[in-house]
Amino acid sequence: MKNGQLVSFNHTSSSTRWLLLGLKQRGFGQGRWNGFGGKVHSGDSSPKAAALRELKEESGLDVSDENIEEIGRLWFTFTENDECFEVHVFMCPDWHPFNSTTGQIQWPSDTDEMHPSWFPIGALVDRSDDPSTFSLDISNIPFNNMWPDDRLWLPKALLGTHFAGWLHFTRMLQPSKPSHPDLLADCSASTNALNIDPYEVPAYRLEFFSPSDGAKHNGVIEAEEDDTPKFSIQSMVQRLNLDSDDELRHWMNSKSRIGPWMSELLVFA
């Protein structure tokens, strides 16, 4: 099952950068702070279109597809479900409340499904060589009330690192009591009186990608219209043949690096 999720939505106010998350009010994921997104419907032209549609439905925000990019691909499996969920993760790196299309100021608003809130994630660093640089501070991100895997990849994603990963979830018998003390697991039973269905992660594979000169020859770097090199998650997926169910299963269970552009392989099982 394919899902489109706009998980990183950044806004710069004065010298502070902010991350927009939504508190899920009902359904799967209730009680968790999360990005905005959901299933790809038959009327959606792409996972990106689905992410933007869900963002509009869950927060009231209209964002152009030119302002977001895919930064990661995740596959989720559950012990209680035989289905594998493929999630396309997108980022809107620099959002502003002025909508140039409508000519109006817009801010996220509450909906039946999500309660949006901004979280400060660091201050801009005054550097003449790269004015967009900022010092990341994750201390205000509510990881204890998010999906347990978010703390693994979200900090790197906020710094512009691309990634791919597989995570296997098992429902916990009791909140805050994983079957093994070293397991990645939920540590909160509720958020603002919204109960959390607790899960632990007994197995996962997560890889981060660092584009390099060698990656260009492997078809992972795509050139923009101005010839600026840009890392492509879809090209990476095709390069590793992860669109194939058999190859995806092999990749999920393999601990070997497959390409020279990969870095910091994390495996726990």
TrEMBL record:
BP term (GO), one: DNA protection
GO molecular function: 8-oxo-7,8-dihydroguanosine triphosphate pyrophosphatase activity; dATP diphosphatase activity; metal ion binding
Recorded GO CC terms: cytoplasm
Catalyzed reactions: N(6)-methyl-ATP + H2O = N(6)-methyl-AMP + diphosphate + H(+); 8-oxo-dGTP + H2O = 8-oxo-dGMP + diphosphate + H(+); 2-oxo-ATP + H2O = 2-oxo-AMP + diphosphate + H(+); N(6)-methyl-dATP + H2O = N(6)-methyl-dAMP + diphosphate + H(+)
Domain Nudix hydrolase: 1-142
Gene3D superfamilies xrefs: Nucleoside Triphosphate Pyrophosphohydrolase
Domain of life, source organism: Eukaryota
Cofactor(s) listed in the protein's UniProt record: Mg(2+)
EC nos: 3.6.1.56
Keywords noted in UniProt: Hydrolase, Magnesium, Metal-binding
Keyword Oxidoreductase on entry: no
Subunit structure: Monomer.
Purpose of the protein: Oxidized purine nucleoside triphosphate hydrolase which is a prominent sanitizer of the oxidized nucleotide pool. Catalyzes the hydrolysis of 2-oxo-dATP (2-hydroxy-dATP) into 2-oxo-dAMP. Also has a significant hydrolase activity toward 2-oxo-ATP, 8-oxo-dGTP and 8-oxo-dATP. Through the hydrolysis of oxidized purine nucleoside triphosphates, prevents their incorporation into DNA and the subsequent transversions A:T to C:G and G:C to T:A. Also catalyzes the hydrolysis of methylated purine nucleoside triphosphate preventing their integration into DNA.
Family, as annotated: Belongs to the Nudix hydrolase family.
Protein's recorded name: Oxidized purine nucleoside triphosphate hydrolase
Native species: Opisthorchis felineus
